Fold:
Amino acid sequence: MDNKIARSVSLFNNDLRLKGFNVFQIKEDDQAVRFYSRKDFYKICLTTGKSKIHYADRSFEVEGTVLFFGNPHIPYSWETISTTYVGYTCLFSEEFLCVSERTDMLQQSPFFKIGGTPVLKITEQQRASLNILFQKMIDEQNSSYVYKDDLIRSYINLIMHEAMKMQPSENFDQHKNAAYRVAAVFMELLERQFPVESPNKPLQLKTAQDYAQNLALHVNYLNRMVKEVTGRPTSAHIAERIISEAKALLQHTDWNIADIAYALGFEYPSYFNNYFKRMTGTNPSSLRIMEV
Structure:
C-alpha cells in the first residue's frame, strides 16, 4: 500500500461547473488508489477490477465488473486493490439534468440514496451493452452536434433504466459501527453549507429534519446515530455551526444585520437577534461593536 499513488478526480469540478458534464475512459492504471473528497457532481462508473468502496454506513468489496453510482451529498472513498483496473466514468451535475426536467429520477432512484444500493454486479453481456452507451457519450462529448447535451442526457437516463432492471448486489459488509459513518455523512453535509457567500443565497438546510430529509434518513435515526458518536444531538451541531458563521459574518463583512439574518435562514432580523443572544449571551450588534 505504501508505494501506491494517490489520485484525485475532484479537478473535474471546474469543468463540470462550466458544462455540467464529463465522461472519460479509465485506462489501465497500475498501483493506483483513488481518494474522493468533496464533490459537487453525480457519478456513474463502470469498472472492471478489484476494489473496496466505503459508502455512507456500508462497505463493498467487489471484484469483476461493477456499476457504481455516487451522490454528491454522500461522502465515500474508493480503493483499487487490483493492478489492472479499467472502465468508464461519467460525471454530471444536477443542473445538467434539470434542463430536461429529469431530476425526479435522481431523487427516486434507489442508487443515489444513502440507504440504497450504489453498487451493481455486472455480467459480461451487460458490460458489453453498457460499454457501448459510455462510448457513445464520449463520442457525443467530442462532437460538434448542436443537440449533443440532450442526447447525452438520454444516454444517462438509459443507463439508469438499465440499472433499475438489474438485481441489486447484496455482497457487501455492514460497517462494524454504522453510527460513525452516518455521523460522518451528517458532518460532511453540514460543512458543505458553509461558508455563506451571499445574502442572495441563504442557508437551505437549517434543522435536523432538513438534514435527515436530504440524506433520506428518518430524523430520529439520524439524531440517535449522531448523538451516539458525538455525545451531542444533531440540532446542537447545527446551532453551533450557524453561530460560528454568524460571528464570522459580523466580524469580517460589512453586511448589515438584516442581510446576515436572511443569509443564515432567519425570516426576520428579530428572530436572528433572539437566537444569537440565547446562544451566545450577547446580541449581534454588540459583538460587532466589540470587534471594531
